[in-house]
Specification:
Strand order of the largest sheet: 2-3-4-8-7-6-5
Structural class: alpha+beta
Order of helices and strands: HHEEEEHEHEEEHEHEEEEEEEEE
CATH topology of the largest domain: Protein Transport Mog1p, Chain A
Largest sheet: 7 strands, antiparallel
Radius of gyration: 21 Å
Helix content: 10-25%
Number of strands: 18
Strand content: 35-45%
């Protein structure tokens, strides 16, 4: 998968072919239940084992991506790449992500061979697939269901992609939904607020200890992402489990937004307002 960029923005003809502006006019809910692949009983994936996985963040549109690299249990030359993406702000952003990632390949998209899998196979709210070669079965497939993006590709699995996608989509449609996401009422910052108040004061250039932040480690990184307009979030060198905020030199209120996940693709959101002063 080629989705490592924090900001993806391209406008090739795939968007025109599927009339992306019309697709974005639809309003859909967001999933309210976490989708943990390892806990799902997806029959078509039982012949595969996960050999590696990674978690990453796309800032615009805001999304959390989890990529699974799988291999056949009996036939190791059969490989599958599955990418699951959760668009935090909803369906319209998921549609944008669907096209942006699908258009990020270096080789041209075979528009004339692109299949509308939503119409042909009733997969996703929006979805398509194509083959890079002359074969009939697709070797790339992508779709969106509510605010979830699914990308599939691999080696020696072309005949299975449609079936795997259908099984994943059926699982996604059974998840509970909601209109939008809210902050975690029992978030990491709650204990900190109880100790030092809802709006802690930090001197410019000073530090505020946040403490340990429970989260899942996926591959070489943690399912943990911070946003702050000024300053930085760091780990204590002597106590790596402890995190702290180092304020910048701008004297005003600053917001820290934290996303952390314990599994799957749906993180918890927490927020803290800090007053930076002299």
């Amino acid at each position: 998968m080629n989705a490592s960029s924090n900001h993806i923005n391209k406008e090739p003809s795939l968007r025109k072919h599927f009339e992306i502006d019309r697709l974005k006019e639809t309003i859909r809910p967001v999933i309210a239940e976490n989708f943990v692949l390892e806990d799902q009983k997806i029959d078509t994936l039982t012949t595969f084992e996960i050999v590696h996985q990674e978690i990453s963040l796309i800032r615009t549109p805001l999304a959390f991506l989890r990529e699974y690299n799988m291999a056949g249990i009996e036939k190791k030359t059969t490989t599958l790449q599955l990418q699951l993406g959760l668009s935090w702000n909803g369906y319209q952003d998921a549609i944008e992500l669907l096209f942006a990632i699908s258009e990020s390949f270096q080789r041209p998209i075979p528009i004339e061979k692109t299949i509308n899998i939503t119409k042909e196979y009733d997969i996703g709210d929006v979805g398509f697939a194509w083959s890079w070669s002359v074969q009939k079965d697709p070797d790339y497939l992508a779709f969106v269901r509510n605010n979830i993006l699914v990308n599939l590709q691999g080696n020696n699995v072309q005949s299975l992609l449609i079936t795997i996608a259908k099984d994943i989509d059926n699982t996604l449609t059974r998840l509970k939904t909601t209109d939008h996401y809210q902050e975690d009422p029992k978030g990491i910052f709650l204990k900190l607020k109880e100790k030092i108040g809802d709006h802690p004061n930090v001197p410019a250039g000073g530090t505020l200890t946040i403490g340990p932040i429970p989260c899942e480690k996926v591959g070489n990184r943690h399912f943990l992402f911070f946003f702050t307009p000024s300053g930085s979030i760091n780990r204590d060198r002597t106590q790596p489990e402890i995190w702290y905020y180092r304020a910048g030199m701008e004297e005003k209120e600053q917001e820290i937004i934290l996303f952390r996940g314990m599994s799957g693709i749906l993180p918890l959101k927490d927020r803290l307002i800090i007053s930076v002063h002299k």
